[in-house]
Amino acid sequence: MDFGIWFLLAAAMVFFMQAGFAMVEAGFTRAKNAANIIMKNLMDFCLGTVCFVLIGFTLLCAEDYAFGLIGIPNLGIFTDFANFPFSDFVFNLVFCATAATIVSGSMAERTKFSAYLIYTVIISAVVYPIEAGWVWNESGWLAQMGYIDFAGSSAIHAVGGITAFIGAAFLGPRIGKYSVDPATGRKTARAIPGHSLTLGALGCFILWFGWYGFNGAAAENLPQLGSIFLTTTLAAGAAAIATMTLTWIKNGKPDVSMTLNGALGGLVGITAGCTNVDAAGALIIGAAAGVLIVLAVEFIDLKLHIDDPVGAVAVHGVCGVWGTLAVGLFARPISAGDEVISDAAGLFYGGGAGLLGVQALGVLSIAVWVTVTMTAAFALLKRFHGLRASAEDEILGLDSSEHGLESSYADFLPVTNPDLDVLTGKPAAAPLLSVPPDRAVPVTDMSTGRKMTKVTILTRQNRFEALKAAFDGIGVTGITVTNVLGYGVQRGSRTYRGAPLESQLLPKIQIDIVVSKIPVGVLVDTVKKVLYTGKIGDGKIFIYDVENVIKVRTGQEGYDALQDAVPGDE
After folding, report:
1. 3-class DSSP state for residue 145?
2. What is the pLDDT of residues 257-284, one digit of tens each?
């Protein structure tokens, strides 16, 4: 196998993860910000590319590396292009883009687009390249100590997660995310569901696919590559199962969005040690990551009151730190024939606490670097440029205020044209402020003198068949059925990502019946007998007077229009 070709193919897979991040973030947030999210995930890669080629790559990978801390910048790509390490550049570029784009999700729905672009330049040009050089440049001080982060649990994901936390804290929560009790001052989290779990799931699967390239790109032989694919898959699967099970136990139902996060958390957790642990280690690392996702998402939201719409801090920050430390516990020497896959040994495999200490030192050092630099960056951005969009822009949606789009889903908007006369369809010479009397719709009394009543029933969807059978039994010959959404005083009792859905729209069925011959009391009693359980949600019955009914096909009105077919009416 030509691992040079695989190296570049894997880099392309990592690039495709940008689409996964965009889909997860767009799906987990509201539709009015989808275009803004797409632009952020596009432009952080494009801006990052220019920054990385100008300075970032040499800060990370330069052979002239000062004091084990930083590469000496040069413009070799412009002055000696023929001898430039093309493949290494592309490989490191796509990883840099991943670190940058992680932050987009935690700061979604309320960040100025221009401020996000400035942040992208800072992390791509300086913050990420310097700390990544400590880990992956042969002269980096952490690399010299034997620090292990094979594919970036700390160097990429923890960096993105910590930055996401800082950015979200500087921004503050979205409008309406938390309510404050005026008497106690206590904050209560409110769920703001994303507009498309389908998009979120698609993004999750794209990321999982790309992760085989993310973790496997640097493999040096086929057994090592196979081992990486195996541990990556096991960790993600175990994490998703753990998250699903925990949310099922806690909330009574398995949480879909949290389980998607769980799979991603497992992938982040295994990234550092994907080539250094065996199947048992991968399963444990993944399962622990799945539990951490639930605990971290709820702690950050419900206790710290940091608004992270997509769970980026928990997925990348918490699981990134966990995965890096886990190498110091579960690393073991692994070989396949003459091919060495791993020669490190962690605490549980006879290696003592030395590797765990190095891992802890590395995580702490990277966390301090990112915290100091990104706190300064966001503070300066907030002070001199502004970080958060205005309240008006946030309520309207950033698609409109930042990009001039009414919606990312234009086909779902009503089609209107203010330049047309709404009555004639012809160009309007001036706005229509009134309708001339000769064009007004006449109002006439069409009552027939015989009482007709409309009965509307709202109830659970699963009661429809029983109601229909009961209607047949009392002679009802026609009904209109509509699926509707709504809530009563109970407002539902479900949760989204651990926070209550206070105004959840519950699916109901609406049945409309107009009767004249059948006594209303008989119909009402029949409905009550079928629906009554004595529990919340049995339904409601509404009764209205009807002025007239016209059967269009026959011209019959009133009472006659409601009866069965007349003789000769086939």
Report:
1. helix
2. 999 999 999 999 999 999 999 999 999 9
CA dihedral over 74, 78, 84, 90, signed as positive or negative: positive
117 vs 124: CA distance, rounded Å = 11
From the CB of residue 345, how many other CB atoms can be counted at a distance below 10 Å? Answer: 18
Instruction: Tell me the C-alpha distance between 143 and 141, whole Å.
Output: 5
Instruction: Specify the long-range contacts of residues 262-265, CB closer than 8 Å, at least 24 apart.
Output: 262/289, 262/290, 262/293, 262/294, 263/204, 263/208, 263/236, 263/237, 263/239, 264/24, 264/204, 264/207, 264/208, 264/236, 264/315, 265/239, 265/289, 265/290, 265/292, 265/293, 265/314, 265/315, 265/318, 265/319
To the question of pTM greater than 0.90 for the whole model, the response is: no
Q: What is the pLDDT of residues 362-390, one digit of tens each?
A: 999 999 999 999 999 999 999 999 999 99
| Whole-angstrom distance, CA of residue 476 vs CA of residue 184 | 56
Average model confidence (pLDDT) for the chain?
Answer: 89
Other CB atoms within 10 A of residue 367 CB: 19
Question: Do 328 and 216 contact (CB within 8 A), yes or no?
Answer: no
**404: helix, coil or strand?**
coil
Instruction: Write out the two tokens for 409.
Output: 């889903």
Element containing residue 236 per DSSP (H, E):
helix 222-251
Coil vs helix vs strand at 159: helix
Q: Which residue has the tokens 């998009």?
A: 199
Q: How far apart are CA 26 and CA 195, in angstroms?
A: 8
Cβ distance 41 to 101 under 8 Å?
yes
Q: 415: helix, coil or strand?
A: coil
- Tell me: pLDDT of 135 over 80: yes
Task: Write out the two tokens for 144.
Answer: 């010299």
Q: How far is it, in rounded angstroms, from Cα 357 to Cα 325?
A: 9
